[in-house]
């Protein structure tokens, strides 16, 4: 059995660790800030794929599916990825964040930050390490993840809500064919859905995340393909270069061929090797071994 098939077999077997499919939990049970209604699209949530205590490495990942900030690829870039992470001994939380054009920035970032705060504040309950909470994003979800990794805070120590006391900085990032820039190589649809038709140039610059990298940006793994016709590979290249310049640990894998939006690429014998590269990266950072 080839390595990709072994990975897929483990992913399927992981379902046995869950007594039943997990249920989504609202980020704000009493109603999300700035909600424009009470419909499902107004209620951001997390679906927890949490391993039984003592069975994992204490590492968790908040997953941001892609969809151009207009839809969400919840199955291919969410639930399937969560089950694969479970197979590595990593707990996962699939984020359903609010979308444009109904919602614009900073709502999406607010949802991602809330997700990180929830997981970190409940780390003991989930059997996790609060300093092993990462974020992973695909396509526009990669933009959201990279925004969370370049726009964060330490939490509000005096907040009445214990969740708001937790910091929103992810401890590591995984960015898969991500939208990064809103400049020359931008994905125009993602920019329009997030910022509207005529955004302030200063806001465009602020959310071009290759310009926001500092030495405090979390270690990052990136995966892209040269022939991605939807989100140019330059997005990942520019972010990797910025990480290198800032001295942030980073790993970039660019495949010569492959379309956009492949997820785990289970039916592609070449692209399906990228999850193993991610597993190696998590391993060298000690994220697959319990403390």
Feature tags:
291 residues, alpha/beta, Rossmann fold, globular, disordered N terminus
Topology:
Blueprint: H1 3-14, E1 25-26, E2 45-49, E3 60-64, H2 75-87, E4 91-96, H3 107-121, H4 123-126, E5 133-138, H5 140-148, E6 173-176, H6 188-195, H7 201-206, E7 220-225, H8 234-246, E8 250-255, H9 274-284
Helix pairs in contact: 1-2, 3-5
Number of helices: 9
Indicate the CATH class: Alpha Beta
CATH homologous superfamily? Alpha/Beta hydrolase fold, catalytic domain
User: Order of SSEs, N→C?
Assistant: HEEEHEHHEHEHHEHEH
CATH architecture descriptor text: 3-Layer(aba) Sandwich
What is the SS-derived class? alpha/beta
Shape: globular
Binned strand content: 5-15%
* Total domain modules: 1
Please outline the major beta sheet: 8 strands, mixed
Helix content: 25-40%
**Spatial order of the strands in the main sheet?**
1-2-4-3-5-6-7-8
Overall radius of gyration: 18 Å
CATH fold topology = Rossmann fold
Average pLDDT reading: 94
Describe this structure in words.
With 291 residues, the chain is of the alpha/beta class. It has a single domain, classed as Rossmann fold. The chain has nine helices and eight strands. An eight-stranded mixed beta sheet has the order 1-2-4-3-5-6-7-8, sandwiched between helices. α3 (107-121) packs across α5. The chain starts with a helix and ends in a 7-residue tail after the last helix.
What's the short version?
The protein has a single domain (42-130, 140-284), classed as Rossmann fold (3-Layer(aba) Sandwich).
